[in-house]
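Could you show me some protein's one-letter sequence and the numbers that encode its backbone in two labelled lines?

___
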Amino acid sequence: MAEMTIRRFGVISVAKMYGLLMFLFGLIFGVIYGLILIVFGAAISAMGPGSDAAAGGIGTVAMGVGMMIGLPLFYGVLGFIMGAIGALIYNVVAGIIGGIKFELEGVQDEYAPPPPPHQWAPNQYPAQ
């Protein structure tokens, strides 16, 4: 087993990864909440013949579509910023008290060395 220590993180690398992960979470939550708002908006506009019900329903449907677009973007940008701040804080703290130690274990129990190289022999297979 090899013991390793994470001394530093690439700030932009962590920020991009965390931003993408949060964008995906925002996409999931945005679609779920957006669909709920669209269904409720359709139900509100179908409730009554008046223009107030239609206006309320259309507003709720617009909020649902806005949620589907806005929530992933908001989560992604916020995730990028928080990932960068988190990596910067980790780098500062790891410089003061040391990094995170972890152990790596190989899949194979024994190391198998590669076979020795073969010697090249000219005319090993003569033409017939």
User: Anything to note?
Assistant: The mean pLDDT is 86. The helical segments are 11-47, 51-97. The longest helix spans residues 51-97. Residues 46 and 86 are 48 Å apart (CA to CA).
